[in-house]
């Protein structure tokens, strides 16, 4: 019957354990009766069970541990010469009579450890002999375990400084020598495992090797524990020797593991002082070794070390840690031609993290890292690998996170060059990250130069990149992006007006490239940003003289004019109209009549030519009226022209109610409730009367068209206008006129044909209540209202 | 021989004692009947002296034609059993013909006896030394008594003792270089050496060092060769790679070795060989045999 591999192994292990137990039993009996011969015989037989080749490392370990425990008892026996009567030197020979090498060497190591303890021979000699004799076992698993046993029993017996086995200063070297040799041999055996047996079980073998790796690594741990290994010795002796072995073994698994081991077991301080040596080994490793993880760990450790105490920082500078690391990474990348781009990038990310933590003040380092990265990236056109892209994003985000300040990133010349290598989507994501960082930290970008760099960085959002597939754009994402850009524009600010103007020009230059979809988002913030500058200039005016071509409101308005014009081609006329009006108002505040007039002209032209939708027209005309009303800069002529235009357009609106409302709104154009505002009562009355006529006409039209009377509410609205001007002291508005209007409304409301409009009723009722209230209040206003009856 | 004593009740008992019997070192000697007895140890050119006492049985007188003691060095070939070849034969007449009435003691002495060969007990040949006392009688047979003793000759450490160093191999398959620290070892010596692997293309399972004894007897067409493996000592477990150097340290003391004997009296030779055996995974054996000389040395007794 065939057994599966695992079952077989279980069986063999059970047999092995049984063999160990059986012989251990007789060995115990021999020990109890102090019979050395028998003890040696049965211990050798017991150890013969370890000669098996059938067990996997895992199972073999189990067997080994059984034998190991038994050997401890044997060691106790060897220690006590009174029990066996043989001197330790003779015993050392005696165990070597065993015919089989494996039991012989286990026994030799056991006696050897007692020999050292007895101090009858220098520890050095015994250790040297043991480590040399162990060469006889060339079978990888058996050899590894044997040598691991040797390492185990000798651990507390190394002639280290301060140990009882130390004889003179030289002996530390012996201890090191011993451990190094054992390490070297174990590593060779471990590596050799890979090349034995059929190729098809490679994976299984790698797994088995992984299980054994700590046996090898243990030696490095022991080395690190030797007191006498000071920096000097580590530098001159230990590290070069260990690295030599690591490099020469040419084995991927071993190189990775051992490099990591070195980094983990020895103190940071040593690494710092031996960086060159340690890093020098990296490019010599096999091309498949995951060197980036190794180096990342090293950099992690070093940066933790740097952060741990301020005292160590000078050391970093002294040894030029950054330069060395950077250099090494370059070499590794050059050496490992097959390393995927993601590997290289993640190395740079690690290096960047390192420098950000250790040398936060050295921006040039950061830039250097980015520069190196650019160099690497430029070997391929665009990044395709999504993992690599992620790494690049991490690379670019790191300085932002660290400094919380985009300004720092802006000083990095290579930053945008790295971004160039991202695909468009990622580029946008990165740009968003940048903007978010600015927003989060309320960073103010205050020079045109920085703005230039910034826009270079976020150009993915600012304009269509070459070959970008438009149809893939998600509308919502796009809006969000552009809103972010709009918000960003407000963060670009400088108190110095000249610089601010430069900033505005720079921004303008960039956003103008944005194309029709982006302009409606980006032009308004720019306009408002410029207007803010205008107001600022206005507050400090006078001081700006002297410099050639200082930032003047005039210049800014010219710029604005051109800017807003672009919206026409987008086309986004309504937006443009609003902006023109905003500009006009600002120009008014600056006392620049021609400019304001020009803006109004533009606004009217827009109204005429571009705004065709009737609803839009209504909104537009009200905006125009509202703005025009507030503007005080115009001379009579200009004002007349404009008000005339406005009233004209109002009366030409499509729907009667709209006409009516626009026209009564126009009445305010002739009555500005300021000290020296225009107060042309007659023309106010004309407007209101005209509104009344239109309201009447509307009413009749409604009667004709629908058989029901039109909206009474228009009359109520007009009534309210009357009341307003009445109160303001417009003599053209008389109490009798109001009285007749009230009566008109009352009769209209009672007419049968009028459809019931509760809102209009309520409006009218509250208007009447207001009049009553004014009458009762008395005083001048009360008297004025007195003649009106409701 | 003994059966003579058994067949006819001997007329007298003969005992042989050595002069320094109490102090002299006794060594084990394996008799042909398989028993091991302790016998005194001598070396060449020693004086062998002592006393013979003859005691008639039950007070009878013993008539004799003379009493003599012989010191014999004999070689016995097993294929020619019972036929001794005496290479040494010394005789001392102890008494003239006469009668012995009571216990009578004769001192004897062989001074500075040449005993060039050592006692040897091999597979096909035996070399022994024996004292033979003969009470000659005309009738009823002579009374004979034997006393074995062992001879070992110590040689001073050889003045020339080169190491054995050799490179051997099978082309494109296996090349090794081995070295044994000496070519001549004493019986309690240690063989130190190493095997250096220059080229390994076969999957080696293990490597042993064997000590082989080659005993050749007879001469010419009748030469008989017997080879025994006295020690099988595992040197290496597993497959080495190129560049490995495997140490050898083999203590000779646990093994029952004799010195090398070369052409002893034209009768036999005993030679020792170190046989280095490599076994591959298909159990094929590759070996190289080198002769070594074993000698006894005074050192080994200290």
What does this molecule look like?
The complex is a heterodimer of chains A (790) and B (302). Helix content of chain A is 73%, strand content 0%. Chain A has helices at 5-32, 36-48, 57-79, 81-84, 88-94, 101-118, 123-133, 140-154, 171-193, 202-225, 231-249, 252-265, 268-273, 275-281, 291-308, 313-318, 321-335, 341-358, 363-377, 386-403, 406-410, 415-419, 424-441, 448-457, 459-462, 475-489, 497-511, 519-539, 553-568, 573-589, 593-609, 614-630, 636-651, 656-666, 681-706, 713-728, 735-750, 758-777, 779-785. Chain A has 39 helices and no strands. Chain A folds into 4 domains: 9-118; 122-261; 267-402; 423-611. Chain A is mainly α and 790 residues long. With 302 residues, chain B is an all-beta fold. Helix content of chain B is 2%, strand content 59%. Chain B has one helix at 2-7, and strands at residues 12-18, 26-30, 36-42, 48-56, 62-64, 66-77, 84-95, 98-100, 104-110, 120-121, 125-136, 143-151, 164-170, 174-180, 184-186, 190-200, 204-217, 224-237, 245-251, 261-264, 268-280, 285-295. In chain B, the strands form 5 sheets. In chain B, strands 2, 3, 6, 7, 10, 11 and 12 form a 7-stranded mixed β-sheet that branches. In chain B, strands 15, 17, 18, 20, 21 and 22 form a 6-stranded mixed β-sheet that branches. In chain B, strands 13-14-16-19 form a 4-stranded antiparallel β-sheet, with no helix packed on it. In chain B, a hairpin with a 5-residue loop joins β2 (26-30) and β3. Chain B is elongated and about 85 Å long. The two termini of chain B are 38 Å apart. The A-B interface holds A 51, 93, 96-97, 99-102, 104, 132-133, 135-140, 142-143, 188, 192, 196 and B 206, 231-241, 244-247, 249, 251, 253-254.
């Amino acid at each position: 019957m065939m057994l599966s591999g695992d079952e077989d192994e279980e069986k063999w292990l059970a047999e092995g354990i049984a063999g160990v137990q059986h012989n251990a039993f007789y060995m115990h009996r021999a020990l109890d009766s102090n019979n050395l011969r028998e003890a040696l015989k049965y211990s050798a037989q017991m150890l013969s069970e370890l000669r098996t080749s059938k067990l996997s490392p895992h199972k073999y370990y189990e067997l080994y541990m059984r034998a190991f425990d038994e050997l401890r008892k044997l060691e106790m026996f060897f220690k006590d010469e009174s029990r066996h009567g043989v001197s330790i030197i003779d015993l050392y020979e005696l165990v070597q009579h065993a015919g089989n090498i494996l039991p012989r060497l286990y026994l030799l190591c056991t006696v050897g450890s007692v020999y050292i303890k007895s101090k009858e021979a220098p520890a050095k000699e015994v250790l040297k002999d043991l480590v040399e004799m162990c060469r006889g076992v060339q079978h990888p698993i058996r050899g590894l375990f044997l040598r691991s046993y040797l390492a185990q029993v000798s651990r507390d017996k190394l002639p280290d400084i301060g140990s009882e086995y130390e004889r003179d200063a030289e002996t530390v070297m012996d201890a090191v020598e011993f451990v190094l040799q054992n390490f070297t041999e174990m590593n060779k055996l471990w590596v050799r495992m890979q090349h034995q047996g059929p190729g098809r079980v490679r994976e299984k073998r790698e797994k088995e090797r992984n299980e054994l790796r700590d046996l090898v690594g243990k030696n490095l741990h022991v080395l690190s524990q030797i007191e006498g290994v000071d920096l000097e010795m580590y530098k001159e002796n230990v590290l070069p020797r260990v690295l030599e072995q690591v490099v020469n073994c040419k084995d991927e698994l071993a190189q990775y593991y051992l490099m990591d081991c070195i980094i983990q077991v020895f103190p940071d301080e040593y690494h710092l002082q031996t960086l060159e040596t340690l890093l020098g080994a990296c490019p010599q490793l096999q091309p498949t070794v995951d060197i980036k993880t190794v180096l990342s760990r090293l950099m992690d450790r070093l940066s933790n070390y740097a952060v741990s105490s301020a005292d160590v920082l000078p050391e970093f500078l002294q040894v030029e840690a950054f330069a060395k690391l950077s250099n090494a990474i370059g070499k590794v990348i050059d050496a490992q031609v097959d390393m995927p781009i993601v590997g290289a990038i993640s190395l740079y990310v690690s290096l960047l993290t390192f420098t950000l933590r250790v040398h936060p003040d050295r921006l040039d380092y950061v830039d250097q890292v980015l520069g190196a990265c650019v160099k690497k990236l430029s070997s391929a056109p665009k990044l395709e690998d999504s993992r690599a892209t992620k790494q690049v994003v991490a690379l670019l985000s790191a300085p932002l996170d660290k400094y919380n300040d985009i300004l720092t990133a802006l000083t990095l010349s290579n930053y945008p060059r790295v971004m160039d290598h991202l695909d468009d989507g990622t580029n946008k994501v990165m740009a968003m990250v940048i903007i978010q960082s600015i927003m989060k930290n309320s960073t103010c970008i205050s020079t045109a130069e920085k703005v230039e760099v910034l826009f270079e960085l976020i150009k993915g959002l600012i304009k269509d990149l070459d070959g970008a597939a438009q149809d893939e754009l998600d509308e919502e994402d796009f809006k969000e992006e552009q809103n972010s850009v709009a918000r960003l524009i407000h963060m670009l600010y400088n108190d110095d007006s000249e610089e601010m103007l430069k900033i505005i020009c720079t921004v303008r230059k960039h956003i103008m490239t944005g194309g029709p979809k982006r302009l409606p988002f980006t032009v308004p913030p720019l306009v408002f940003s410029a207007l803010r500058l205008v107001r600022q200039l206005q507050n400090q005016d006078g001081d700006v003289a002297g410099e050639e071509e200082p930032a003047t409101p005039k210049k800014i308005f010219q710029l604005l004019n051109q800017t807003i014009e672009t919206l026409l081609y987008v086309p986004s006329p309504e937006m443009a109209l609003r902006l023109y009006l905003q500009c006009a108002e600002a120009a008014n505040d600056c006392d620049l009549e021609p400019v304001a007039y020009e803006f109004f002209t533009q606004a009217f032209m827009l109204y005429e030519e571009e705004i065709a939708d009737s609803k839009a027209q209504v909104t537009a005309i009200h905006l125009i009226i509202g703005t025009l009303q507030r503007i005080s800069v115009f001379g009579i002529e200009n004002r007349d022209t404009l008000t005339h235009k406005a009233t004209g357009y109002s009366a030409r609106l499509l729907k009667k109610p709209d006409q009516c409302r626009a026209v009564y709104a126009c009445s305010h154009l002739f009555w500005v409730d300021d000290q020296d505002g225009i107060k042309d009562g007659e023309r106010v009355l004309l407007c209101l009367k005209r509104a009344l006529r239109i309201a009447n006409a509307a009413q009749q039209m409604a009667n004709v068209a629908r058989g029901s009377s039109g909206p009474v509410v228009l009359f109520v609205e007009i009534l309210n206008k009357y009341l307003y001007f009445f109160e303001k002291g417009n003599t053209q508005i008389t109490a009798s006129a109001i009285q007749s209007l009230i009566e008109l409304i009352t009769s209209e409301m009672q007419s049968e044909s009028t459809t019931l409009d509760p809102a209009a009723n309520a409006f009218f009722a509250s208007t009447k209540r207001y009049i009553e209230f004014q009458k009762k209040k008395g005083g001048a206003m009360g008297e004025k209202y007195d003649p009106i009856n409701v | 021989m003994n059966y003579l004593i058994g067949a006819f009740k001997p007329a007298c008992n003969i005992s042989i004692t050595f002069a320094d019997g109490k102090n002299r070192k006794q060594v084990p000697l394996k008799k042909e009947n398989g028993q091991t007895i302790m016998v005194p140890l001598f070396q060449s050119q020693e004086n062998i002296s002592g006393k013979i006492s003859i005691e008639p049985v039950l007070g009878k007188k013993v008539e004799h034609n003379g009493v003599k003691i012989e010191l014999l060095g004999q070689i016995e070939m097993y294929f020619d059993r019972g036929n001794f070849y005496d290479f040494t034969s010394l005789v001392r007449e102890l008494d003239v013909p006469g009668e012995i009435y009571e216990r009578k003691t004769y001192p004897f002495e062989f001074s500075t006896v040449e005993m060039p060969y050592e006692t040897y007990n091999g597979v096909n040949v035996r070399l022994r030394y024996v004292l033979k006392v003969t009470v000659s009688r005309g009738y009823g047979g002579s009374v004979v008594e034997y006393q074995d003793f062992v001879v070992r000759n110590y040689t001073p450490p050889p003045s020339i003792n080169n190491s054995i160093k050799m490179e051997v191999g099978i082309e494109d398959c296996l090349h090794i270089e081995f070295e044994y620290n000496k070519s001549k070892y004493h019986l309690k010596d240690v063989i130190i050496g190493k095997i250096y692997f220059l080229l390994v293309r076969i999957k080696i399972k293990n490597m042993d060092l064997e000590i082989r004894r080659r005993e050749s007897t007879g001469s010419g067409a009748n030469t008989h060769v017997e080879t025994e493996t006295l020690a099988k000592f595992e040197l290496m477990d597993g497959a080495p790679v190129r560049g490995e150097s495997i140490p050898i340290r083999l203590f000779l003391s646990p093994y029952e070795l004799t010195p090398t004997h070369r052409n002893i009296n034209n009768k036999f030779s005993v030679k020792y060989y170190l046989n280095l055996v490599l076994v591959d995974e298909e159990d094929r054996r590759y070996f190289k045999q080198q002769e070594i000389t074993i000698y006894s040395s005074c050192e080994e007794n200290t």
